[in-house]
């Protein structure tokens, strides 16, 4: 008998407005999720229970790109050439280039096309650079294991782009601080004025806790004076919100050698392959553009390049957490799946969610204990210079913040800021 209502007897949920649904579906494509995983996200995150056929219909309706629809050969070739031109050490493989094209350009390109185009443009060099065994063998390591997400978080500072790493003068450098879950996802990656200051890293840690509304069972680090507040906050929050966890069996903090803090140390190498190697060489071009002893140059470097590096870190974070890892049969933790998917659906991979939920009031109370307020601890330049720089930047039309045009923007801004400083006699005020 015909069902006059057209209903199938199952509550499929209510589709959101078209613009919202379009954004959701395009985000799934950008993250290169399989159809099965997209259906899981739709059901668990948005209350929409549909099948693959309906999902394909919606993808067609909202013009969600796919490899099968690949037609833009000229556009793709130009995009691939642009991406590999930024990788001065030629360390990126076809999978990485394919993912960058998807994340940055919303361009879906078949891997075979990426590989053949790279071969035509640069020959065998890149593949040889990535050949296993080209470098001396790494330290032998055992297989990583964990009960679940938020069981252990690894934190560390990255100073290869910092003042000591670049060696370009006092105050010329960009430190980075990051945190990675033991299971694989990079949770936090931010530029900081100084990765060795306890006040600064204390605020960074509380920012991350605020974002996830939870702390992990354990935080692992490799020592350092900057960890005073971080270790204290982790211990305090763990004790207050998970008092049943034994401090002896489940210590809230653990200090190890840098070479043993594997998860976060390996993240730095991924960062260099995707972004940092090229970025460091571009930063070092500043030797011909800036005068380290010039106060305006020093402030402008810190103001401008801290923003450019953060843009690069955000892109890398998006790439890394949405990139399927290589399938490793001998690996204990999940492989062959993107870290974000494992983190969002740990139960599907035999893992638990061990996050310890914490109250925002407790986070705020701990932040109040830090000597330097957040605005001061994370300040790159004096407030006066910050205002001047923003005015000049907007006068120039707010050019795109990316590494390749960074020094061009710097050279355009420097004389305009200097003119304002001289006109209003602000030099002494910038010494504060």
Q: How are the elements arranged and paired?
A:
Elements: H1 18-30, H2 35-46, H3 52-61, H4 73-86, H5 94-105, H6 111-122, H7 125-129, E1 148-149, E2 152-158, H8 163-166, E3 175-181, E4 186-192, H9 198-212, E5 214-215, E6 218-221, H10 228-241, E7 253-255, H11 262-284, H12 295-322, H13 339-344, E8 352-353, E9 356-357, H14 360-367, H15 374-377, H16 383-395, H17 406-424
Protein name: Transposase
Organism: Favolaschia claudopus
Q: Strand sequence of the main sheet, in spatial order?
A: 4-3-2-6-7
Kindly report the average pLDDT value.
Answer: 82
Largest sheet: 5 strands, mixed
Basic shape: globular
Distance between the termini: 82 Å
Q: Please, how many helices?
A: 17
Task: Give the second-level CATH assignment, the architecture of the domain at 153-277 and 324-377.
Answer: 2-Layer Sandwich
Derived from helix and strand composition plus strand pairing, the structural class reads alpha/beta
Low-confidence parts = 135-143
At the fold tier of CATH, the topology name of the domain at 153-277 and 324-377 is Nucleotidyltransferase, domain 5
Percent of residues in helical segments?
Answer: 40-55%
- Cα-based radius of gyration, to the nearest Å: 24 Å
Number of E-type strands = 9
CATH class of the domain at 153-277 and 324-377: Alpha Beta
Protein name: Transposase
